[in-house]
Design a protein that fits this description.
single chain, 276 residues, alpha+beta, Rossmann fold, Glutaredoxin, 2 domains, 4-stranded mixed sheet, 9 helices, 4 strands
Length: 276
Amino acid sequence: MSRPHPVQGWGPDFIPKLTADAVAMKLIDRIVPINGADALRLSRELAQKEGIFVGISAGGTLAGALEVCKDAPQDTTVLCMLPDTGERYLSTPLFADIGADMNEEELTISRSTPGAQFETPTPVPAAAPICAPKPATAAAAPASVSSAAEEFVARVLSDSAMPVVMFALEWCEFCWAVRKLFAKYRVPFRSVDIDSVQYQQDDMGAKIRAAVSARTGFTTIPQIFIGGEFLGGATDVLQAWKSSRVQQLLEKNGVSYDKSVNADPLSFLPGWLHAR
């Protein structure tokens, strides 16, 4: 049996009972770690090349199956189950490169069927302030914090060569909101993706999260620091950019960014956060 490392839709903050039971019954023969980029790539390729519209976890499952195939005996049949559909991922990083509006090529295709047009736009009410639900709070951090994880966090936060640090999850849409902001303004930063393959060994990712939470008193992800100063989570940073606090900290710590950009920070929040 192979499965991707915890991804969106697979419960990243706990081990489901089904998985725990399978471990206890010794039904798992092999665990195949999967990089997040491979899961995203294969999910997109399934849609583009096979017409199979699935989500991120399905891409991760296929990546695991392909790894199994590499050393499987000749003529082996490998069953890869993709119990997923892609429409629930439209506002996630899986489709981040696809614009909400049709491009010119897509419009040309659309206009080739004049009998199926919706040319009359629907009036859109003025946007109200966004009321974003709080990200789900993870289970309480363990009472004891790993000294190795504490040392790692302290070392990362004291690195003057990379003052902007985000402790993140690969699949978290709020983490991607901050990534998009930093990319737009060309802010160099270090992202410690605690659910990535890099931090799987010895459950280091969870230990890093516990160490960060012990330092800040917050258990949600992402958590962003500039020059060792804790700014908060995604909406905190977006609001802090709006008030110019982030820019002041960047300049204080000698971090260059593109000052010619003028974008609304809140526009980087997930698309499903409708105005209320």
